Every structure is written in C-alpha cells, then in structure tokens.
C-alpha cells in the first residue's frame, strides 16, 4: 500500500470513529434528557400520591362541609374573610387564603424540584408568612424577604433582609434567579418603574412570578381624582390600593421587557372535588422571563 493510500485509509478510520463518537454523545444527551424528564414526572406523581393519601387517610373525618388545606394538610371548616366577607376563605390553622393555596399548588407543581435541588437566590417582596415559611425550608434557596416597612414584619416575628422600595431596588443587575411578588404592585405609586426594577435585577434565565388583584375588565382603572381612602376603597376595592388592574397588566409587564405567560387555575389539572375541597379560586399568575 502506497503512502497516499495509507493516509486515506487512516483518514477514513478517523472520520468513522469521530462520527460514531459524536453519535454516541448525542444519544447520551438524549438519554439524560429523558432521564431528567422521567425524574420530574416521578416527583410529580409522588406529590400527587402524598396529597391524595392524606385526603384518603382522613376521609372518615371529612363531612360535606369540610375543607382540606393543601398547605398545612389539615381538615377544617374554612372561615369567612375579607372587607366584604368571602365564605370559606381562610384556613383557621395556617391562615391561608384562596390565592395562597392556589399559588402554593402552583409552586409545588412547577418549581419545588428547583427549590429543593438547585442553588438559587430568591427575592420576595412583602412576604406572606406562609411563603416565608415555605421558602426558608429549602437549603438551596438563598432567601431575600424584603419590604418597604420591615418594622411591621419584625413585630410579627418575621425577620427581613432589609428595607426595599420596589421602585428603587438596591441590588445589582441580574442578581436574582427567582422573584416573587403577590398583591404588591397595586400599592406602588409608579408601578412601571417598579416593573422595570424587577426586570433589571432578574437574571437572564430567571423567573419572576407576579400576582395582582384583577377587576376582570380589559383596562386598568387608575385616576388621579380617586385620591382619598374612601374613593380608593369604592373604586379599587381597598383604601390602600392605587389602581385596579385589568387584563392589560400583562402588556404593562411586557412593556418593560418581560416575556409573559399566564398561568390559570385550569393549568393545575385539579378535579372539581379538589377545587371545592381546597377552595381555590381563579387568580391569574403572571410568569415573567427575559
């Protein structure tokens, strides 16, 4: 065999092994993706099993009037709550309301594996005690609960990181993996500036979960003449609110750069019996990414 033939033969052998190596790498990558998918599906099945097991175990204690709190796992008769009283709104044990139970189920379905297994930095505005306790249980979560009035939280036994005005967040660009704010933006004078700050401090691959009270109308109601506690309560539903958001809150969030997906109650795939048992109501959850 001449020199030229030897070179060609070696070259063909190299390409053969190279092609097979790349093929094996690709197959291995696909297998790992499938493995991760199966792990996530298994974790979801375990969660659903544990939830259903608790209901089945306590089935003899359930009456037609009973409720089950998915957060604290207790059976009781939920209590009325609100300026205009909503029947069966609050769990008497953990004090969760309809939206708290909905958001808890949303977190458990979509993010608990991340909270449990991935090191993340999480910024939480105006922390509810329920989610303060929820986030602090995870070893991998570097938790930053903040508010404009931390002294009030200290009186309730909740220690916050620092005083933070959402319009002027004192953290660096792209610092947080996860941001959660629920029923906060309606209290902020310049909500567009606040939304811009949320976008600024969120990492490129991060997630910002936003929940606000919604009127059900298309447009947000916000008028300068509604400037007294009485007028705000009449038109916005709360004397401390500065606007009543419409469905255009999605466009407001998008206007500062966010890509926004809307999660609904139906996305949790709950049965009618579970919705009744947990007493969760429709509350749109805005999932914001860059």
From TrEMBL:
Keyword Coiled coil belongs to the record: yes
Keywords tagged on the record: Coiled coil, Methyltransferase, Transferase
Coiled coil: 14-52
Pfam family, one: Methyltransf_11
Gene Ontology MF term list: S-adenosylmethionine-dependent methyltransferase activity
Keyword Metal-binding assigned: no
GO BP: any one term: methylation
Organism: Methanobrevibacter ruminantium (strain ATCC 35063 / DSM 1093 / JCM 13430 / OCM 146 / M1) (Methanobacterium ruminantium)
Domain Methyltransferase type, residue spans: 141-209
Protein name stated in the entry: SAM-dependent methyltransferase
Transmembrane domains' residue ranges: none
Gene3D superfamilies listed in its UniProt record: Vaccinia Virus protein VP39
